[in-house]
Amino acid sequence: MIIIMERNATKVQIQRVIDFLKDNDFQVRRNVGEIHTVIDAIGDKTTITPGRLAAFEGVKEVKVIREPFRLASRDRNPEDTVIEFKNGVKIGGNNKPVFMVGPCSVEADYDGLLEIATAAKEMGCEFLRGGAFKPRTSPYDFQGYGEKALQFMKRASEATGLLTVSEVMDASDLPMMLDYIDVLQIGARNVQNFKLLHAVGKCNKPVILKRGLASTIREFLLAAEHIMYNGNMQVILCERGIRSFDNAFTRNVMDIASIPVIKKYSHLPIIIDPSHGTGQRYLIEPLAKAGLVVGANGVMMEIHNDPENALSDGKQSLPLPMFKEVMTRINKFTNNLRYEEQCLSANVK
Amino acid sequence: MIIIMERNATKVQIQRVIDFLKDNDFQVRRNVGEIHTVIDAIGDKTTITPGRLAAFEGVKEVKVIREPFRLASRDRNPEDTVIEFKNGVKIGGNNKPVFMVGPCSVEADYDGLLEIATAAKEMGCEFLRGGAFKPRTSPYDFQGYGEKALQFMKRASEATGLLTVSEVMDASDLPMMLDYIDVLQIGARNVQNFKLLHAVGKCNKPVILKRGLASTIREFLLAAEHIMYNGNMQVILCERGIRSFDNAFTRNVMDIASIPVIKKYSHLPIIIDPSHGTGQRYLIEPLAKAGLVVGANGVMMEIHNDPENALSDGKQSLPLPMFKEVMTRINKFTNNLRYEEQCLSANVK
Amino acid sequence: MIIIMERNATKVQIQRVIDFLKDNDFQVRRNVGEIHTVIDAIGDKTTITPGRLAAFEGVKEVKVIREPFRLASRDRNPEDTVIEFKNGVKIGGNNKPVFMVGPCSVEADYDGLLEIATAAKEMGCEFLRGGAFKPRTSPYDFQGYGEKALQFMKRASEATGLLTVSEVMDASDLPMMLDYIDVLQIGARNVQNFKLLHAVGKCNKPVILKRGLASTIREFLLAAEHIMYNGNMQVILCERGIRSFDNAFTRNVMDIASIPVIKKYSHLPIIIDPSHGTGQRYLIEPLAKAGLVVGANGVMMEIHNDPENALSDGKQSLPLPMFKEVMTRINKFTNNLRYEEQCLSANVK
Amino acid sequence: MIIIMERNATKVQIQRVIDFLKDNDFQVRRNVGEIHTVIDAIGDKTTITPGRLAAFEGVKEVKVIREPFRLASRDRNPEDTVIEFKNGVKIGGNNKPVFMVGPCSVEADYDGLLEIATAAKEMGCEFLRGGAFKPRTSPYDFQGYGEKALQFMKRASEATGLLTVSEVMDASDLPMMLDYIDVLQIGARNVQNFKLLHAVGKCNKPVILKRGLASTIREFLLAAEHIMYNGNMQVILCERGIRSFDNAFTRNVMDIASIPVIKKYSHLPIIIDPSHGTGQRYLIEPLAKAGLVVGANGVMMEIHNDPENALSDGKQSLPLPMFKEVMTRINKFTNNLRYEEQCLSANVK
Q1: Would you call D220 an interface residue with chain C, using a CB distance cutoff of 8 Å?
Q2: Binary contact (A348, B286; C-beta < 8 A)
């Protein structure tokens, strides 16, 4: 249950509710918001009913959380979460969608990366993404350049003003990565690597959490819950396709409907990654637009200055000239969307 | 292989190619187009190579079909198929998307159906859809009103000018149905009922073919091929969701990417059915828009004058007032889309 | 609800229960068994509770059917269904598992078919299977020899004493097929072709119903229900693999657990088809044994006298010498199984 | 490529092959076996063909590895891997299948664990399994007792002579765990947690690797390859069900065919876990037998002294009396199997 206290509830009133819950074997979590203190209580609702709690002084409202995810639930937090960066960029809510672009892997060539970052900046993108540690199905494939790649990312960020995103694969890399990176990414294969979720949950840094290939929507939101439960509320979800019986034409099936579903049940921002979702260059633009039209708060795309020679995922990366054309059309599309009177958010909630 | 003859190729030249192919055990099919005669030849390409055929007089070009579907393939027919109806409505190509709306099942109440049809007409829709024969998972569920339902459909069509769509489940019903219905529909469960595909393949009536819950894109196009192979080229594909491991929030997963994939590999028009695809009323609008933005040639939606009491699928049907709001926004959205300089079609092909 | 009448219930008592149910808008179906009359009633259980019915004279027991399938349900019929053929062969219950073997398609060569049938008989198999009408994904593939194939089947049956199994694809073929065939087969692609299910439901001939590639267990049993609801209780289910995300090494995933699940919830016999289930010759023997060990009442296998030149599915057919070796081991295995004190049936029910 | 040297090849001959490969940019790995030295070379086969290498003195045979997994491949190692424990227990090859049983989570009650272990020993099982660190979908569920649980495991092991198995979730726990545990387990959710795979790859301790819910067979073997590539060849695979579209009656679908497929393509031992695979107590026995009959080298089962009050997975655990009955029948079954003349291994390879 969620107990929302009155805006002028006293500390004594709040403590009384908490003590009562603890005496009845509830796990309790207090969240002090700008206006209301909210108490999150987990326990046996047959012992203490919501009605019993509503009778305490200073209690404004008691809500039952219907879904197993709690902190991520819109029941608990009806307003969209908005994450704001040092340079004023915002993700979530009614803010303009953001674009995160870059190579699958950062390579040994800094000039190439700078060329990519410059094109990204020119086209209005906010984030440079690039892999330093690559989870690869085979141990014989390229595994990433590690810290050197992150240094390149930071240099390119300083040169262009872009924020940086990179995947973390191991909790022990976190302290080092925090120096270089503005957004940590958890990859699809680690969506239920709970130790890693707990570790990023203890960082004060936004986290992009990618949906696993076989994650149900509920499991995906529970993975976010693992991060939030450890204290980090800055979670950005990412739909990147799920596994289906047909991979002849696309690598995965993009579950576009998951975006409005998640918007309905959760307050977290969600972005879309059509590069990994489809594995096909020609599908990036249409799927990016499809995601935006159903409410995605951003798009992640793989782009490359020399896709033919990319160390990973070249085939699904947009070459820079094509990226500029695609981005020009997407920017125009996004601007039109904004005049659509926010029909979607009105409709969905 | 496809052998495209010169526009001024003589009958003798054409016959010579055909005879040569037949002598070498190829199956041959001649298609006389407005400009070119095209010969479709199936056989052992190691016996007769494309180069050998290109050397014949009057041959303009020889193409190898890379996909197992041939008549449905864009290799064979680079231009989009456009289907035109008696009242001038067109589906496919760069024509404005069409809308097919109505109840899941036609019910015993003609006035209700007329109310639905009137609302559909008012909102600019072109087709009234309604089930007369319902494929139901359980034999204990309502199976449709049969011919009586089709009579109601025809009356509502005459009253409003809408074209009609209804599902055929049995070849023996076809002669009767052809009197009432403008578009035959093959349901998802019958996508590989080849006898039924062959039967509608022999009708001179457009056919909507719904993707099966476990159809790969290739199998889906091969099911269309079964219809076309029997002579009926007026096939409209319909993406309506596939089965996945997660049905907690949506009944199926809509494979939005299948639309641009199919546009790339086939010339057939394709529409989207977000009602069956998601099973959720609140997802119809966003998914319809997602489909349109990636190039769908139309949308099928379930609407109902009294969804609480519908005999089937009430939960996923839009009540009429909500339908009007949704349709107003979709119409506006579609009009904006058309100013997008056809980026999609340019990009996808 | 199922109302089981006492063994000595009078006609008047039975009629009184039926009238009462009909007066309260229940659909009623009376089944006269050897010992008990059973009344199957479908309607609103809040209007008439089981307790209300139990109070009628002559009523032995009232059971609520928890699953949507009723006639197929073990709740309704606790004893295994056993199907007996003219020559004394039985399928189901504790009877020895049966073996149905033969070519995917019957071909133009009767001698080849006779060679197969003779080998089958020699190895103790009871049924010859062979396709006359082939559902093929592509219209360009071989579609079967039709009635001629069935004539060959009947000749081979007369020569060897084997019973015959063949797939029906169209209700209009049924009258002709009934002359030739002892068991009708409904293929996986037609598992929800309800018109065909209804048609075989009106035949007095055992039916093998194959699970669809995307059929849930519940849908599969409801498809059987469509047949039974039309009067034919002689349904044999067949597990033949479902579609999954991995088809690199096997064509489908065999859901071996579905066999004991279905044994628990239904009284119908179930067989296993490892040829279609795996698509790999080397997997037929181990998967056949796996099916038998969990309770399958029979095995269907593709065998061929000349698999290299088979018109369909040659790769997954066992050549005759390999078939004899495999069958020798399976027969030995099956004999051992029978000494296992029926632990499975005891455990599963 | 795999270069197998003659048994009497000289050091100079071996070095010459290695130098030649390295000069041509191949990655080289030398494996000194009891009889042959084997050189594993990865690089561009168009530069150096197998024939070129076969011409070197001292080379017995050059094999091309067709699958992306190499160390795990049967091409490279035709003999089954057998893992032997300090007490003489062996897994793999033609050795008697092993049984690993115990509670899902080790709980606060040592006496309960000892009761379980005593029953396991009595029934002839070799391993006690129990979770100390539990990967749980929700952060609100019980996460395991950690080191205390491992201490209990070790005490129970010393009391009974059973070997111990427990899951590792974090590389940093490894040094501590190695003191208590005989076999490390990697859970299904961590099957592509490559950092963890690398960490256990550096341990000298057998590892059970569970198949992921959406792992293809190829990805599963490549995950094993990540462990082996880091030096640890003692990998035991575990089939525990994959995700499908139907979870109404079973939690997952057990892919029984994966066992003979993996036996064909890999030399690693593989066990089956029907408790997690089905999530249903009544399916453990039949699925365990199905796994054994297709060649599984062992079975993992959840059993519990008090399943009603288990902290996790009680519903799928066998209560001890039922475990004893099941195990009695399985032991008898396994003994019979062994007289089956190893038909399976003969057939499958």
Answers
A1: no
A2: yes
pTM of the model: 0.91
Whole-complex ipTM: 0.89
Distance from CA of A244 to the nearest CA of C (A): 5
Q: Which residue of B has its CA nearest to C173?
A: B195
Q: Map out the domains of chain B with their CATH numbers.
A: 2-63 (3.30.70.1140), 83-348 (3.20.20.70)
Token couple for C142: 């071989």
Strand D183-186 versus strand D163-167 pairing type: parallel
pLDDT tens, position by position, for chain A (349 residues)? 889 899 899 999 999 999 999 998 888 888 887 788 889 888 877 778 888 888 899 999 888 877 888 899 998 888 999 999 999 999 999 999 999 999 999 998 999 999 999 999 999 999 999 999 988 888 888 889 999 999 999 999 999 999 999 999 999 999 999 999 999 999 999 999 999 999 999 999 999 999 999 999 999 999 999 999 999 999 999 999 999 999 999 999 999 999 999 999 999 999 999 999 999 999 999 999 999 999 999 999 999 999 888 887 777 899 999 999 999 999 999 988 865 544 444 444 4
Q: How far apart are CA D207 and CA D168, in angstroms?
A: 10
Mutation for A interface: D173, D174, D194, most A CBs within 10 A = D194
**Using CA atoms in the order B13, B19, B24, B25, what is the torsion angle rounded to 10 degrees?**
130
Give one DSSP letter per residue of D177-238, joined into a string: HHTT-SEEEE-GGGTT-HHHHHHHHTSSS-EEEEPPTT--HHHHHHHHHHHHHTT---EEEE
Nearest chain B alpha carbon to C243: B214
D247/B245 touch (CB, cutoff 8 Å), yes or no: yes
What is the gyration radius of the CA atoms in chain D, in angstroms? 21
Q: How many angstroms separate the CA of residue B69 from the nearest CA in chain A?
A: 14
Cβ neighbourhood burial of A132 (10 Å; 0-12, 13-18, 19+): buried
